[in-house]
TrEMBL record:
Signal peptide positions on this chain: none
Species name: Actinomadura sediminis
One Pfam family recorded for the sequence: Ni_insertion
Entry EC number(s): 4.99.1.12
Protein name, UniProt field: Nickel pincer cofactor biosynthesis protein LarC
Protein backbone atom coordinates (compact mmCIF):
# COMPACT_ATOMS: atom_id res chain seq x y z
CA UNK A 1 0.00 0.00 0.00
CA UNK A 2 2.78 2.42 0.92
CA UNK A 3 4.60 1.73 -2.35
CA UNK A 4 1.38 2.20 -4.32
CA UNK A 5 0.68 5.58 -2.74
CA UNK A 6 4.32 6.65 -3.08
CA UNK A 7 4.18 6.05 -6.85
CA UNK A 8 0.89 7.90 -7.26
CA UNK A 9 2.45 11.37 -7.41
CA UNK A 10 0.20 12.71 -4.64
CA UNK A 11 0.99 15.90 -2.70
CA UNK A 12 2.85 15.05 0.49
CA UNK A 13 -0.04 15.97 2.87
CA UNK A 14 -2.49 13.82 0.89
CA UNK A 15 -0.12 10.85 0.79
CA UNK A 16 0.67 11.08 4.50
CA UNK A 17 -2.99 11.33 5.51
CA UNK A 18 -3.91 8.37 3.30
CA UNK A 19 -1.06 6.32 4.76
CA UNK A 20 -2.22 7.24 8.27
CA UNK A 21 -5.76 6.07 7.48
CA UNK A 22 -4.60 2.72 6.11
CA UNK A 23 -2.14 2.40 8.97
CA UNK A 24 -4.92 2.90 11.53
CA UNK A 25 -7.07 0.38 9.64
CA UNK A 26 -4.26 -2.17 9.55
CA UNK A 27 -3.65 -1.76 13.29
CA UNK A 28 -7.34 -2.37 14.01
CA UNK A 29 -7.47 -5.45 11.80
CA UNK A 30 -4.29 -6.79 13.37
CA UNK A 31 -5.71 -6.36 16.86
CA UNK A 32 -9.04 -8.08 16.19
CA UNK A 33 -7.36 -10.97 14.32
CA UNK A 34 -4.45 -11.33 16.73
CA UNK A 35 -1.76 -11.01 14.06
CA UNK A 36 1.11 -8.64 13.28
CA UNK A 37 0.29 -5.49 11.33
CA UNK A 38 2.49 -6.63 8.42
CA UNK A 39 0.43 -9.84 8.15
CA UNK A 40 -2.93 -8.08 7.72
CA UNK A 41 -4.84 -8.86 4.51
CA UNK A 42 -7.28 -6.07 3.80
CA UNK A 43 -9.86 -8.08 1.80
CA UNK A 44 -12.71 -5.68 0.97
CA UNK A 45 -10.91 -2.51 2.05
CA UNK A 46 -7.99 -3.29 -0.25
CA UNK A 47 -10.22 -2.94 -3.30
CA UNK A 48 -9.60 -0.09 -5.69
CA UNK A 49 -12.83 1.67 -4.77
CA UNK A 50 -11.81 1.84 -1.10
CA UNK A 51 -8.36 3.17 -2.02
CA UNK A 52 -10.10 5.80 -4.15
CA UNK A 53 -12.41 6.66 -1.24
CA UNK A 54 -9.52 7.23 1.18
CA UNK A 55 -7.31 9.14 -1.24
CA UNK A 56 -10.29 11.14 -2.52
CA UNK A 57 -11.29 12.29 0.95
CA UNK A 58 -7.71 13.22 1.88
CA UNK A 59 -7.22 15.07 -1.42
CA UNK A 60 -10.51 16.96 -1.01
CA UNK A 61 -9.56 18.18 2.47
CA UNK A 62 -6.15 19.27 1.17
CA UNK A 63 -7.55 21.06 -1.89
CA UNK A 64 -10.14 22.87 0.25
CA UNK A 65 -7.49 23.89 2.82
CA UNK A 66 -9.57 22.36 5.61
CA UNK A 67 -7.79 22.91 8.93
CA UNK A 68 -10.18 21.18 11.34
CA UNK A 69 -12.61 18.27 10.95
CA UNK A 70 -15.32 17.39 13.46
CA UNK A 71 -17.91 14.62 13.40
CA UNK A 72 -20.81 13.81 15.71
CA UNK A 73 -21.95 10.39 16.98
CA UNK A 74 -21.69 7.62 14.38
CA UNK A 75 -24.63 5.37 13.47
CA UNK A 76 -23.00 1.95 13.09
CA UNK A 77 -26.17 0.03 12.25
CA UNK A 78 -27.53 -3.20 13.67
CA UNK A 79 -28.16 -6.83 12.73
CA UNK A 80 -25.64 -8.84 10.76
CA UNK A 81 -23.37 -8.29 7.75
CA UNK A 82 -21.73 -10.61 5.21
CA UNK A 83 -17.93 -10.24 5.25
CA UNK A 84 -14.88 -12.04 3.89
CA UNK A 85 -14.81 -13.89 7.24
CA UNK A 86 -18.46 -14.96 7.04
CA UNK A 87 -21.68 -13.67 8.56
CA UNK A 88 -20.88 -11.35 11.49
CA UNK A 89 -22.80 -9.14 13.93
CA UNK A 90 -22.88 -5.38 13.36
CA UNK A 91 -20.72 -3.51 14.10
CA UNK A 92 -18.08 -5.82 12.71
CA UNK A 93 -14.94 -6.21 14.88
CA UNK A 94 -12.78 -3.73 12.94
CA UNK A 95 -15.47 -1.02 13.15
CA UNK A 96 -15.87 -1.62 16.87
CA UNK A 97 -12.11 -1.37 17.37
CA UNK A 98 -11.83 1.86 15.37
CA UNK A 99 -14.85 3.36 17.16
CA UNK A 100 -13.28 2.94 20.61
CA UNK A 101 -13.67 6.18 22.54
CA UNK A 102 -16.32 7.63 20.20
CA UNK A 103 -20.08 7.98 20.71
CA UNK A 104 -21.97 5.45 18.57
CA UNK A 105 -25.59 4.41 18.14
CA UNK A 106 -27.40 1.61 16.36
CA UNK A 107 -29.11 3.89 13.88
CA UNK A 108 -30.93 1.27 11.79
CA UNK A 109 -30.72 -2.15 10.21
CA UNK A 110 -27.60 -3.48 8.51
CA UNK A 111 -24.04 -2.16 8.38
CA UNK A 112 -24.09 1.64 8.31
CA UNK A 113 -20.42 2.27 9.14
CA UNK A 114 -17.62 0.44 7.35
CA UNK A 115 -14.04 -0.06 8.55
CA UNK A 116 -12.84 2.35 5.86
CA UNK A 117 -15.26 5.05 6.98
CA UNK A 118 -14.39 4.62 10.64
CA UNK A 119 -10.66 4.74 9.85
CA UNK A 120 -11.16 8.04 8.02
CA UNK A 121 -12.98 9.47 11.05
CA UNK A 122 -10.41 8.09 13.48
CA UNK A 123 -7.54 9.85 11.67
CA UNK A 124 -9.12 12.98 10.22
CA UNK A 125 -11.93 13.83 12.67
CA UNK A 126 -10.15 13.45 15.99
CA UNK A 127 -12.57 15.87 17.64
CA UNK A 128 -16.08 14.59 18.35
CA UNK A 129 -18.62 17.38 18.66
CA UNK A 130 -21.80 18.73 17.14
CA UNK A 131 -21.89 21.30 14.38
CA UNK A 132 -19.46 24.07 15.44
CA UNK A 133 -20.32 27.75 14.95
CA UNK A 134 -19.36 28.58 11.37
CA UNK A 135 -20.13 30.77 8.40
CA UNK A 136 -21.46 28.11 6.04
CA UNK A 137 -19.83 28.28 2.61
CA UNK A 138 -20.76 25.01 0.89
CA UNK A 139 -22.62 21.74 1.41
CA UNK A 140 -21.79 18.38 -0.15
CA UNK A 141 -24.01 15.29 -0.22
CA UNK A 142 -22.97 11.84 -1.41
CA UNK A 143 -25.43 8.99 -1.91
CA UNK A 144 -24.73 5.27 -1.80
CA UNK A 145 -26.28 2.67 -4.11
CA UNK A 146 -28.09 0.67 -1.41
CA UNK A 147 -31.66 1.69 -0.56
CA UNK A 148 -32.55 1.41 3.11
CA UNK A 149 -36.23 1.80 4.06
CA UNK A 150 -36.96 5.03 5.92
CA UNK A 151 -33.28 6.03 5.94
CA UNK A 152 -31.59 8.02 3.13
CA UNK A 153 -28.24 6.39 2.35
CA UNK A 154 -26.29 9.65 2.22
CA UNK A 155 -23.32 11.36 3.82
CA UNK A 156 -23.38 15.14 4.21
CA UNK A 157 -20.42 17.47 4.66
CA UNK A 158 -20.69 21.13 5.67
CA UNK A 159 -17.78 23.45 4.88
CA UNK A 160 -17.39 26.83 6.50
CA UNK A 161 -15.19 29.34 8.28
CA UNK A 162 -15.12 29.42 12.08
CA UNK A 163 -17.53 31.91 13.62
CA UNK A 164 -17.85 33.28 17.12
CA UNK A 165 -19.34 31.04 19.76
CA UNK A 166 -20.65 31.82 23.25
CA UNK A 167 -18.18 34.11 25.00
CA UNK A 168 -16.37 35.12 21.81
CA UNK A 169 -16.17 38.74 20.81
CA UNK A 170 -18.20 39.87 17.79
CA UNK A 171 -16.50 39.56 14.47
CA UNK A 172 -13.99 36.93 15.51
CA UNK A 173 -13.82 33.16 15.29
CA UNK A 174 -12.50 30.87 17.99
CA UNK A 175 -11.33 27.28 17.81
CA UNK A 176 -9.28 24.81 19.76
CA UNK A 177 -5.72 24.13 18.65
CA UNK A 178 -2.81 22.04 19.89
CA UNK A 179 0.69 23.40 20.56
CA UNK A 180 3.45 20.82 20.09
CA UNK A 181 6.90 21.65 21.50
CA UNK A 182 10.31 20.04 21.61
CA UNK A 183 13.72 21.31 22.81
CA UNK A 184 16.57 20.49 20.43
CA UNK A 185 20.25 21.25 21.10
CA UNK A 186 22.08 19.07 18.57
CA UNK A 187 20.63 19.90 15.16
CA UNK A 188 22.64 21.66 12.46
CA UNK A 189 21.16 25.20 12.35
CA UNK A 190 21.11 25.09 8.55
CA UNK A 191 18.40 22.42 8.75
CA UNK A 192 15.85 24.53 10.63
CA UNK A 193 14.37 26.49 7.69
CA UNK A 194 13.58 23.24 5.92
CA UNK A 195 12.06 21.77 9.09
CA UNK A 196 9.71 24.73 9.49
CA UNK A 197 8.75 24.64 5.81
CA UNK A 198 8.04 20.90 5.96
CA UNK A 199 5.83 21.26 9.03
CA UNK A 200 3.81 24.01 7.37
CA UNK A 201 3.44 21.88 4.25
CA UNK A 202 2.26 19.01 6.45
CA UNK A 203 -0.65 21.10 7.73
CA UNK A 204 0.65 23.13 10.67
CA UNK A 205 -1.16 26.43 11.21
CA UNK A 206 2.17 27.93 12.24
CA UNK A 207 5.68 26.79 13.22
CA UNK A 208 8.47 28.77 14.88
CA UNK A 209 11.70 28.56 16.87
CA UNK A 210 12.51 30.08 20.28
CA UNK A 211 16.15 30.29 21.46
CA UNK A 212 16.49 28.62 24.88
CA UNK A 213 19.30 27.80 27.32
CA UNK A 214 19.21 24.20 28.48
CA UNK A 215 20.93 22.40 31.35
CA UNK A 216 24.69 22.79 31.65
CA UNK A 217 24.41 26.07 29.74
CA UNK A 218 23.83 24.44 26.35
CA UNK A 219 22.23 26.77 23.78
CA UNK A 220 19.25 25.19 22.02
CA UNK A 221 16.01 25.90 20.19
CA UNK A 222 12.45 25.17 21.25
CA UNK A 223 10.53 24.04 18.18
CA UNK A 224 6.89 25.11 18.49
CA UNK A 225 4.11 23.93 16.17
CA UNK A 226 0.53 25.20 16.22
CA UNK A 227 -1.71 22.40 14.96
CA UNK A 228 -5.41 21.88 14.28
CA UNK A 229 -6.59 19.05 16.58
CA UNK A 230 -7.00 16.65 13.68
CA UNK A 231 -3.40 17.14 12.49
CA UNK A 232 -1.59 16.75 15.81
CA UNK A 233 -0.73 13.06 15.36
CA UNK A 234 0.75 13.60 11.95
CA UNK A 235 2.70 16.72 12.92
CA UNK A 236 4.06 15.00 16.03
CA UNK A 237 5.33 12.21 13.78
CA UNK A 238 6.93 14.79 11.48
CA UNK A 239 8.71 16.43 14.42
CA UNK A 240 10.28 13.10 15.35
CA UNK A 241 11.19 12.44 11.71
CA UNK A 242 12.66 15.85 10.92
CA UNK A 243 14.57 16.55 14.13
CA UNK A 244 16.69 14.72 16.69
CA UNK A 245 14.25 15.20 19.57
CA UNK A 246 13.41 12.28 21.85
CA UNK A 247 10.14 13.73 23.09
CA UNK A 248 7.32 16.10 22.19
CA UNK A 249 5.14 17.83 24.76
CA UNK A 250 1.76 19.28 23.92
CA UNK A 251 -1.07 21.36 25.28
CA UNK A 252 -4.49 22.39 24.07
CA UNK A 253 -5.05 26.11 23.55
CA UNK A 254 -7.88 28.31 22.36
CA UNK A 255 -7.15 30.32 19.24
CA UNK A 256 -9.11 33.48 18.45
CA UNK A 257 -8.97 34.68 14.86
CA UNK A 258 -10.10 37.70 12.93
CA UNK A 259 -12.35 36.95 10.03
CA UNK A 260 -10.22 37.09 6.94
CA UNK A 261 -10.38 37.17 3.18
CA UNK A 262 -8.41 38.19 0.13
CA UNK A 263 -8.57 41.14 -2.22
CA UNK A 264 -6.36 42.01 -5.20
CA UNK A 265 -4.64 45.26 -6.15
CA UNK A 266 -2.62 46.34 -9.18
CA UNK A 267 1.12 46.39 -8.47
CA UNK A 268 3.75 46.81 -11.22
CA UNK A 269 1.37 45.54 -13.87
CA UNK A 270 0.26 42.47 -11.90
CA UNK A 271 -2.69 41.63 -9.65
CA UNK A 272 -1.21 41.06 -6.20
CA UNK A 273 -3.31 39.45 -3.42
CA UNK A 274 -3.79 41.32 -0.13
CA UNK A 275 -4.79 39.44 3.02
CA UNK A 276 -7.54 41.33 4.85
CA UNK A 277 -8.42 40.68 8.52
CA UNK A 278 -11.64 42.30 9.64
CA UNK A 279 -13.97 42.57 12.63
CA UNK A 280 -17.42 44.09 13.00
CA UNK A 281 -17.35 45.04 9.33
CA UNK A 282 -14.13 47.06 9.69
CA UNK A 283 -10.63 46.25 8.48
CA UNK A 284 -8.11 45.55 11.24
CA UNK A 285 -5.18 44.31 9.14
CA UNK A 286 -4.44 44.44 5.41
CA UNK A 287 -1.08 43.37 4.02
CA UNK A 288 0.49 41.55 1.07
CA UNK A 289 1.95 38.08 1.57
CA UNK A 290 5.74 38.17 1.47
CA UNK A 291 6.04 35.15 -0.86
CA UNK A 292 3.77 36.78 -3.45
CA UNK A 293 5.76 40.01 -3.24
CA UNK A 294 9.08 38.15 -3.55
CA UNK A 295 7.83 36.25 -6.58
CA UNK A 296 6.72 39.46 -8.31
CA UNK A 297 10.00 41.18 -7.41
CA UNK A 298 11.97 38.36 -9.04
CA UNK A 299 9.81 38.57 -12.16
CA UNK A 300 10.22 42.35 -12.46
CA UNK A 301 13.88 42.48 -11.36
CA UNK A 302 13.25 44.94 -8.53
CA UNK A 303 13.90 44.78 -4.75
CA UNK A 304 11.28 43.00 -2.67
CA UNK A 305 11.03 46.12 -0.50
CA UNK A 306 9.87 48.13 -3.52
CA UNK A 307 7.08 45.63 -4.24
CA UNK A 308 5.96 45.58 -0.60
CA UNK A 309 5.87 49.40 -0.46
CA UNK A 310 3.95 49.57 -3.74
CA UNK A 311 1.49 46.93 -2.54
CA UNK A 312 0.79 48.76 0.72
CA UNK A 313 0.27 52.04 -1.17
CA UNK A 314 -2.07 50.33 -3.66
CA UNK A 315 -4.02 48.70 -0.83
CA UNK A 316 -4.50 52.07 0.91
CA UNK A 317 -5.59 53.65 -2.37
CA UNK A 318 -8.17 50.88 -2.77
CA UNK A 319 -9.57 51.50 0.72
CA UNK A 320 -7.88 48.46 2.26
CA UNK A 321 -6.64 50.16 5.43
CA UNK A 322 -7.20 49.93 9.16
CA UNK A 323 -10.62 51.21 10.18
CA UNK A 324 -12.05 51.23 6.66
CA UNK A 325 -15.18 49.18 5.85
CA UNK A 326 -14.40 45.59 4.88
CA UNK A 327 -15.22 45.26 1.19
CA UNK A 328 -17.90 42.75 0.16
CA UNK A 329 -16.95 39.76 -1.92
CA UNK A 330 -13.59 38.97 -0.34
CA UNK A 331 -12.12 35.71 -1.59
CA UNK A 332 -12.60 33.02 1.05
CA UNK A 333 -9.24 31.27 0.70
CA UNK A 334 -5.67 31.91 -0.42
CA UNK A 335 -5.84 32.95 -4.11
CA UNK A 336 -4.02 30.85 -6.68
Amino acid sequence: MARLLARAGLPAPVREDALAVFGRLAAAEARVHGVAVDDVAFHEVGAWDSIADVVGVCAALHDLSVADVAAGPVAVGAGRAATAHGDMPVPVPAVAELAAGRSVLAGGDGELATPTGMALLAVLAREERGLPPMRLEATGVGAGSRDTPRRPNVVRVLLGAAEEGPGDGPGVGAAEAVVLEANVDDLDPRVWPGVLASLLEAGASDAWLVPVLMKKGRPAHALCVLSPPGRADRLRTEMFRLTSTLGVRERTVRKTMLRRGWARVDVLGARLPIKVGHRDGRIVQAAPEFEDAARLAAERGVPVRAVLDAAVAAAHAAGLAHGEPAPPGLEAGPPT
